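quick one, 86 residues, struct below
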Amino acid sequence: MSRDVLHETADELIAAGADPTLVRGVIARIRQRVGGAEVYVCAIDRVARDDAIRRELAAGRDIHEAARRIGVSPSTIRRRRSQWLR
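---
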């Protein structure tokens, strides 16, 4: 069984050059806040995906071309665009 996701996150941050003391402090605060709870981690970064969709549409790309470039379905782009226009 692998270590928990927070431990792996701390290791990655420290390996990337983040201050170990700062990382451990942040991890400790997260453990206090959500310790024992089941936490869902999205497979995708929705904010980054939505930003990419906005950029592609602002650049004048059609839905199919934008979807291909971002790696999402055309229906995802249609759905997000309609939600933004509400």
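The chain has five helices and no strands.
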